[in-house]
Hints:
By secondary structure, the protein is α+β, with helices and mostly antiparallel strands. It has helices at 14-30, 72-84, 86-94, 105-108, 111-119, 128-135, 137-146, 166-174, 196-207, 248-252, 267-283, 320-327, 332-344, and strands at 2-6, 34-38, 46-51, 97-100, 155-157, 177-181, 191-193, 213-217, 223-229, 232-233, 237-241, 257-260, 291-298, 304-310. It is globular, with a radius of gyration of 19 Å. 48% of the residues are buried.
Amino acid sequence: MRVVILCxxxxxxxxxxxxxxxxxxxxxxxxxxxxxxxxxxxAEPVLAGPLRPGDAVHAFEVGKEPPSLADRHRLRERMxxxxxxxxxxxxxxxxxxxFLALHGGWxxxxxxxxxxxxAGVPFTGAGSAACAAAWHKGRAQAVLGAAGVPVAERxxxxxxxxxxxxxxxxxxxxxxxxxxxxxxGSSVAVHRVDSLPELARVAAEVHAGAVELLVEPFxxxxxxxxxxxxxxxxxxxxxxxxxxxxxxxxxxxxxxxSEVCPxxxxxxLASRLQEAALxxxxxxxxxxxxxxxxxxxxxxxxxxxxxEVNALPGLTxxxxxxxxxxxxxxxxxxxxxxxxxxxxx
Length: 345
């Protein structure tokens, strides 16, 4: 097939997305596809291609910190221009499939999916409505809770409010909390907070971007993640941390976390986690042609709580979805081909 891979983009996960894109390109070439690698936010969007089987792909490295996005407005302008006209749009229309390796921002919140839907361009992963539903963690929690997926209490602190909301104050006074932007990925700007002054500093940082702050109790138990590909939940992964939180650095730097697949847990717990991931996948509107990854953390009593559902989880060599695939005896190119088959079958 002629496949265009979209990666990079305008989000804090830009580096991760570029690494995912290059990895996906290598897998597609190994499976005999023709590939064009495109970063719609770059000054020169076509990074490589057309590439044919046997061609080499440049690998991208993920830095220790997310890239500074002081020029995010400019990146978004480029991205919008590239996806709505000119040579990039023509590339997309001529492709037999667009493989979305974008993470965060417009790539994961439904913007890019909506543009491709309007243009009639086939693409991998969930549609715009499901992506939008999963992206806003506050609204997603309400949907998941109503569907019977266990979730922790969450309180939103709107960017326009200078005073600490009463329910936020109550959570902080009851014990440590986790504070993070209500819509972001790769655990960017996630903090464990122990006091109101500390929370005020985090809130000022998040609110500076006109983004709501989400506050929830810190869950001290074990952490798990479960990928769903089509209608199948893959083996459970346990994330064993050397830090309090599975933040950006822990996800992408060697040695910060140990990821065990399949998790060394009783079969009953593994089944519960897989069933909850499937329920979350479906409750947010992900169909059998999509894939997702649902993150869980246990409370003090050992009960797993759903943290979030990722619509376009990372596909780098260090990412959790490929690890889950290996637990199901899928080599990396097998996983990528399955994602292609879901979108085209």
